[in-house]
Amino acid sequence: MKVVRGALSLACLNVGANISYGLITGQMTGIKPNPVNLNLLTGTQAFADMGTSLLGGAPVETIISATASAPEPVIAGIMMMLMMAVILLLGWLPKIGRYVPASSIAGFLLILGAVVIFPENAATAMQGNDNVIAALTLVITAIIDPFAGLMTGAILKFGLPLIGLGV
């Protein structure tokens, strides 16, 4: 049961990363409203994950890409992918990886989540009509795990009104 809940929690975190990182990248474009189609992003990542999993690779992740702020973001993204392909084909990635400590990446992600993503998303959730539900979901997610928080939010938002108990 712990393995299933852990897998579901990772799936929830993955969806949250898609939303957060996708929207941050969209904000970098400077286009209003945000041009990111989250359904397309999540679907594309799902297909990419299936492909890499079938070939025995690790799942792919959504990232924040500074290429979004380039004058030609699509061309900049393609150029970055081509450079990465060259690095992979030449076998330089493990050599470069020795000079980048994992703790620097973990620290970056911690600061990004705690300082950039969490406060903005928490404030947005608390502004709605269901701020009690948002607060309870937030607390359950922090105390237990992301899947339990997601299920709590879904039950409070959709389940209680179905049985006549609104929050």
From TrEMBL:
Top-level taxon of the source organism: Bacteria
Keyword Transmembrane helix among record annotations: yes
Transmembrane segments: 74-93, 100-119, 131-156
Alphabetized UniProt keyword annotations: Membrane, Transmembrane, Transmembrane helix
Protein's recorded name: Guanine-hypoxanthine permease
Source organism (scientific name): Lentilactobacillus farraginis DSM 18382 = JCM 14108
